[in-house]
Amino acid sequence: EAKIEEILKKYYFHEIRLPIFEQFELFARGVGETSDIVSKEMYDFQDKGDRHLALRPEGTAGVVRAYVENKIFGPEHHKPVKYFYNGPMFRFERPQSGRMRQFHQIGVEVYGTKNPAIDVETMHLAMEIFHNFGIKDLSLVINSLGNTESRIAYREALIAYLEPHFDELSEDSQQRLHKNPLRVLDSTDRKDKEIVKDAPSVLEYLDEASTKHFEEVKEMLDYLEVPYEIDTNMVRGLDYYNDTIFEVITNDPDFGANTTICAGGRYDGLVEQVGGPETPGFGFAIGLERLVMLLEAANFEFPNLTELDAFIVTIGDEVNTEALKIVTELRKHGLIVEREFVGRKPGSQFKTADKLNAKVVFTLGGMELENRNINMKLLETGNQTKIQLDDIYSDNFKEIYESEIKKLKSGE
Ligand code: ATP
Ligand code: MG
Known about the structure:
Distance between the termini: 42 Å
Radius of gyration: 29 Å
Bound molecules: adenosine-5'-triphosphate, magnesium ion
Structural class: alpha+beta
Shape: elongated
Largest sheet: 8 strands, mixed
Number of helices: 17
């Protein structure tokens, strides 16, 4: 997450923290009544005040709601406004590998510009995130859904094409044919796939403005040398998109090829629909569990974020309070420190220090306490020395500590 957030900052994204649940209506209207997410996958409930609420299935609707409620569209905010979020999402789905009922997404949203350069820089950002982890075996797949009017025309053409095949379609697709025919295009059913192969292409129905927008997106991707594929049968499961949509798909056979780990696109009507002024939007979400699975399949070395600097071995009850003082002092100087609390034999404590990969082990027993010093051992070399408790408690402890480590390393 830290690695991703570092990249997001370069693109001037700021974090937004969102509530876990919202009004059910926000998702029903935003994501779309006929979408799987709303019609089948929502965890919704009545609260004690008889409000119809839902655990969020995705992040975009909540960001749009916050944007409108807090009037971020006002002129005092630099445009475009760029937010990212990171948190749990909930969908009632059949759990399987890479598909959980509670999962996590890091997502971004950009408000306030129709400039295709935003589509491209945001898709580039998604690719940069994966490349930064060393994941190369990926495809950026793009498509354009056009605007509302062209989609209505396309919808009709698609229904006209599919109707003669009605009996051959899967049950799911039969149900979708009139409610949400575009969803038939991304059916996973083998026979459906065969039928939609020859369906009319959405790109043929784009009006002039959408055609120009899509052309510019492709040109800019080319100019940045970002490889991409166009899949005219790719639609998204959420109803709010228009013009550019995209998915990042893995090709890693060890992981399970053709898995989507990131998806998003343009949504110029959603802010208005939620009650704000006309405001274009663009965003995507990355599934964190799927990313982690992919990294595991690629043997990615996850960094240990809490490398222990020092472990304090304590011998005897009488050193308990002094050990407390010592860890407190070491932490003041920024060291990551743990100590023994349960009074095990020194041998077991050393084993623990080894297992936790501590750089240094300090040993404090009755003798040391009496002499006001402590034993310091560098595990890497096994060399050890005694240092005065007064040095640990002095303001320039950090310098003393570092010079001792240097000596223990070289064995002076
Ligand atoms: P899918 O087609 O796999 O169901 P989706 O179209 O429902 O995905 P989006 O709503 O676009 O997915 O969410 C973006 C990303 O979030 C997905 O690409 C995926 O990585 C992740 N994601 C979606 N649903 C789940 C889930 N139930 N469990 C884990 N990750 C998920
Ligand atoms: Mg889904």
